[in-house]
Design brief:
The protein has 92 residues and is mostly helical.
């Protein structure tokens, strides 16, 4: 597996690790975690919980274009070194 594909795997894991602070914030909120309507509760978070939700959503929004770019670069035969450097830069 090439470096860019390893970076896609790392980005995927980081995407789900960014969910942990959101779950903690929801659990610490006054009403607790609502499994039936989690998105409604996430919109009502403020302070560090609200920032955690925004960070998690930003990471999730950036993952799909990054993964698509890595796949397209691989299929088109792009320079492997340049693709690896750019993929590492994205993850960092």
């Amino acid at each position: 597996m090439t470096t860019p594909f390893w970076c896609v795997l790392v980005a995927f894991v980081l995407m789900w690790l960014a969910r942990v602070p959101v779950i903690v914030a929801l659990a610490r909120s006054k009403t607790g975690y609502d499994n039936k309507h989690p998105h409604r509760r996430m919109r009502k978070l403020d302070g560090w919980g609200g920032r955690a939700v925004s960070a998690q959503q930003g990471v999730m929004e950036g993952f799909a274009p990054f993964a698509a770019a890595v796949i397209v670069a691989h299929l088109c035969g792009a320079d492997a070194r340049r693709a690896g450097v750019l993929a590492i830069a994205f993850v960092v």
